[in-house]
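Journal club prep — side note

Before the paper discussion, L.F. wants everyone to see what a predicted structure for a comparable chain looks like in token form. Sequence:
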Amino acid sequence: MKPRISMITLGVGDLAKSIQFYEKGLGFPRMESPPEVAFFTLNGTWLCLYGRVALAEDAQVSSEGSGFEGFSLAHNVESESEVDVVMAQALDAGATLVKMPQKVFWGGYSGYFKDPDGHLWEVAYNPLFWAGPNDESV
């Protein structure tokens, strides 16, 4: 198996609200898609929003559950000040603050928010690399 993540699919409770958050609030570019799903083009992958119950049914698992899901998504940026800007944008779009941006033990600067369905996002500046494995600046 080649190491890659082609698409990240988030199960959401209110598709229209989540589309609003990611498309209008965070500015993610949305692709054409059927009405029961939403796709966004990211740098090197795609983000998909799909109903939580429908996604659980597709995987044949229970849709029940809350709290920490055991993972977070990360958005790396070029500077500490950009962390603050992106965090403010997310909060203005309806995100819930989890951890204020601050200097962290690994030498960077980061904070956390939850999207409208509670998915955990880290916004981070890492002085060793800032964007990700597909970015030419790495």
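L.F.'s comment for the group: Residues 104 and 110 are 7 Å apart (CA to CA). Keep this in mind when we get to the figures.
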